[in-house]
Design a protein that fits this description.
By secondary structure, the protein is an alpha/beta fold. It is built from 20 helices and 9 strands.
């Protein structure tokens, strides 16, 4: 078997199969391989007319089918399975070859793998791929890390298969060295968790407070999707809410168990934010909301807990409240994205990745799950001020949130008085209020720390580090 394939994909479950088809549809000859050869044969038999495939039954055949420098995409489960595939293929590769991990790997694993393969002269690219199985086939958002040299060889192919923004820009770019790509994909998923939770809370408020049916809420979301909330998640939310279960005739959303699962990337986002000291409270509350939903026994044991008596709204009141929910949802979503970009900036600084936040926003405009109309504005904001400390430092976003804040507060207050949980709405508003506060109660917290642990403090009126000898005359000493 001669090296005629320009790229190869090993691991032909749904994502891997669709990615291989995407490459083939875009004119590339693709070597395909799977541990069970039946999947390889099935792909070629079913989709062979979409482009040029080279079926390989063994790792040696697969590697031999690739032109040099070899480009080998791994699409298997993250963790040990990925390591096993790398260990199987690395001895067959030569210096300058490129191994691409397209799974949802933890970025620290990617950093380790990149270092190990770099020592053998092999490039390792951790590429976050967003868009699900449809995106993999028709154009995802791709977030590749790794060496600049590897992107010179691989980048043009990724740009060909990636989604295109409305201005025609491919939704991929070289994110940065080693684990940068998977780090950005991790935070992307964290923002996705927050976005989904905020949308769910908006739905819950419209149903519990405004008294709207799922079908009417679907129409509300469709209306919102024609304005500033235009996004993929708002679009599909309307579709889900409008769907009727064929077996029961009930709204689909009413026959689904209210337990939201998670695969780990949102949790990683929060864990790493804690390590970096970055506040991502909106994202964290979204992760915890999923966790709460999964504790069936805990929730069942709490059914006896008392709550307020709900007040039924009139039609005009309900319509006015729905408009307020739109304001709250928009403001909260902007805060969630703000927190995500802050974490990316902090990770970039910590690991010396030099990530361009404007380019990250640009490649999220198409293909990915969190694609949204306002990403154009986020891109422009970071292009104008690359070192902007916070997205809320952008004048236009700050003005919009200021205009929304009264309705935002009313929605949260209403949720509290009506007993409707709204953890992500409340957390994002608290974050906003913390940023705009002239003084935070952290001064008292630091005083407490100094009292019980001699942890010292800084003063507002002079430089230095100080400790008070608590008790007696409370003498202050310069530390």
């Amino acid at each position: 078997m001669s090296g005629t394939a320009q790229i190869g994909v090993t691991g032909l479950a749904v994502m891997g199969r669709n990615l291989a088809r995407n490459f083939a549809r875009n004119g590339f000859t693709v070597a395909v391989h799977n541990r069970t050869t039946a999947k390889t044969d099935a792909l070629v038999e079913e989709f062979g007319d979409e482009g040029a495939f080279v079926a390989a039954r063994t790792p040696k055949e697969f590697v031999a089918a690739l032109e040099r420098p070899r480009r080998l995409v791994i699409m298997v489960k993250a963790g040990d399975p990925t390591d096993a595939v790398i260990q199987e293929f690395a001895p067959l590769l030569d210096e300058g070859d490129i191994v691409i991990d397209g799974g949802n790997a933890h970025f620290e694993d990617t950093r380790r793998r990149e270092k190990e393969l770099r020592e053998r002269g092999i490039h390792f690219v951790g590429a976050g791929i967003s868009g699900g199985e449809e995106g993999a086939l028709n154009g995802p958002s791709i977030m590749p890390g790794g060496s600049a040299e590897s992107y010179e060889s691989l980048g043009p192919m990724l740009e060909k298969i990636a989604a295109k923004a409305e201005d025609g820009t491919p939704c991929t770019t070289h994110i940065g060295p080693d684990g940068a790509g998977h780090f950005v994909k991790m935070v992307h998923n964290g923002i996705e968790y927050a976005d989904m939770q905020l949308i769910a809370e908006a739905y819950d408020l419209l149903r519990a407070v405004a008294g709207y049916s799922p079908a009417r809420i679907a129409e509300t979301f469709r209306s919102w999707n024609t304005g500033r909330l235009d996004s993929y998640l708002i679009e599909i939310t309307a579709e889900v809410l409008a769907h009727t279960d064929a077996a029961t005739g009930r709204p689909f959303v009413d026959i689904v168990q209210d337990r939201a699962e998670q695969k780990g990337t949102g949790r990683w986002t929060v864990q790493i934010a804690l390590d970096l000291g970055v506040p991502v409270s909106g994202i964290a509350e979204a992760v915890f909301a999923r966790s709460v939903s999964g504790h069936a026994a805990l929730r069942e044991a709490s059914r006896h807990l008392a709550g307020p008596t709900a007040r039924k709204l009139g039609e005009d009141e309900a319509a006015a409240f729905a408009a307020q929910v739109e304001q709250a949802l928009y403001a909260s979503k902007i805060v969630a994205y703000t927190q995500g970009f802050h974490e990316i900036a902090a990770g970039s600084e910590q690991y010396a990745w030099n990530i361009d936040l404007g380019k990250v926003a640009a490649i999220w405009r198409g293909g990915c799950i969190i694609r949204a109309a306002f990403l154009d504005r986020i891109t422009s904001a970071y292009e104008t001020r690359p070192q902007m400390p916070s997205l809320l430092s952008d004048k236009s976003f700050a003005q919009e949130i200021a205009a929304a804040q009264n309705d935002w507060r009313t929605v949260i207050a209403t949720a509290v008085t009506q007993g409707v949980p709204n953890p992500a709405f409340a957390a994002t508003l608290a974050y906003y209020d913390s940023l705009r506060a002239e003084r935070l109660p952290a001064a008292l917290t630091q005083g407490q720390r100094d009292y019980f642990g001699a942890h010292t403090y800084h003063r507002v009126d002079r430089d230095g580090t100080f400790h008070t000898l608590w008790g007696g005359d409370k003498t202050e000493v310069d530390r």
